[in-house]
Design goal:
InterPro entries: MFS (IPR011701), MFS_dom (IPR020846), MFS_trans_sf (IPR036259)
Main location: membrane
CATH architecture of the largest domain: Up-down Bundle
CATH superfamily of the largest domain: MFS general substrate transporter like domains
CATH class of the largest domain: Mainly Alpha
Strand content: under 5%
Keywords: Antibiotic resistance, Cell membrane, Membrane, Transmembrane, Transmembrane helix, Transport
Shape: globular
CATH topology of the largest domain: Growth Hormone, Chain: A
Distance between the termini: 9 Å
Membrane topology: Multi-pass membrane protein
Number of domains: 2
Helix content: over 70%
Order of helices and strands: HHHHHHHHHHHHHHHHHH
Largest sheet: none
Subcellular location: Cell membrane
Structural class: mainly alpha
Radius of gyration: 21 Å
Oligomer: single chain
Length: 476
Amino acid sequence: MSTTIKSTAPAVPSRTYSRWASLVVLCAGTLMTILDGNIVTVAMPAIQGDLGFSAPGLAWVVNAYLIPFGGLLLLVGRLGDLVGRKRMFVAGLAVFTAASVLCGVATSQGMLIAARAVQGVGGAMTAAVVLGMLVALFPEPREQARAIAVFSAVGAAGGALGTFLGGALTQALNWHWIFLINLPIGAVALLAALRVIAPEQGAGLGKGADYPGAVLVTGALMLAVFVIVGSGDRSLTFTLLLGALALALLLAFTVRQSRAARPLLRLRLFRSRLLSGANAVQILMIAAMFGFQFIGALYLQRVLGYGELLTGTAFLPAPIAIGVLMLGLSARTIGRFGAYRVLLAGLVLVVAGMALLGRAPVDGSYAVDVLPALLLLAAGFAAAMPALTGLAMSGAREEDAGLASGLFNTTQVVGGSLGLAVLSVLAADRTDTLLGRGEELVAATAAGYRLAFGVGAVLATAALVLAAAVLRPRRG
């Protein structure tokens, strides 16, 4: 079974170096957006102290980015198909870079939150079309596998690298520089994109996007992300009401798409077993991995007593291992054993890593209780993510590549938001319960994190079972 899209796009650069140079630019743009989703985590206490955020208000430094990012991916993915993916990517880089500068010079809570929201818009514009551009650039199966491995390595390593850079920049300079660092990166990436990425002709706005449908699905996705990331700060009744409203908007969107002359999301996409199954598996896998990243950093700081820079440094083996494995082995192993088998092997390692973290002792050590699990998770993710990406994108037609890319990125955001919300709420509730019983603070905190890691292992196991059942290649 092939895991590639047969591309008919005429605007693929004819020279090999041009295509790989284009891939470097796409990776640079993606790295910026992924770094910014994680770099804030370690700097949060410094931002809170400087701008006077309350504890609930501080969460909006993250939420203000995630909500427009997750909510707009489908819409801008479709618009990228219509106006041209290069145009959308370049515009997204410009918006994201300008918003990063505004974040870096922010002097008030409102200014920072508003700038983070604009960053989310720019990040969505950039991320939504990248996979569609990548598979058009590399239609040949072996090269496409290599390109997806490089892209996935950059994305996966960027998450862990963001934690390190957040600690290093905050401690060495101040929190403003976690945003200002995007200015030189974004400027170079923007100029390079204009120069090395080949122009392409979109289908044209005359082909139309279903704009009423766009309003419905964007509202549904933004509200869904809002419900997920803020679930710990509101009553259960209010959370359920908002969730019901998000579901109603999504149902209205589905009905609209089944009747619209030019639907925003062609429902036939979901007839693809590979596309639908891979997106469902990704939600569960990313929920476990993103929850680990957040809870793992808190465990190092609040239980083992690490500082900001040391916490960031402790995560460095993950991006190094991911980069080495993805670039050195991923494409070859997928080519030899097939995406399905590599995905299952990767998910087994993720389950093992999360289960190992479930020990999380109060008197733990990094070398015994953290590093082995970190390496298992890195190896598992390095194997699973390129395989899953290839399977997902192979289930879309060329004319739907931008939309499929936006959908794949949307489920990634939803999975990350879901994992962060569920695992952090469970950890906090467990800790509060034990404190109420008279447990010592550090012991109660560690117990909460053990519960979170255990639930993460369950999520990863569910991803493994679903992948085994749904993504198995069909014979013949």
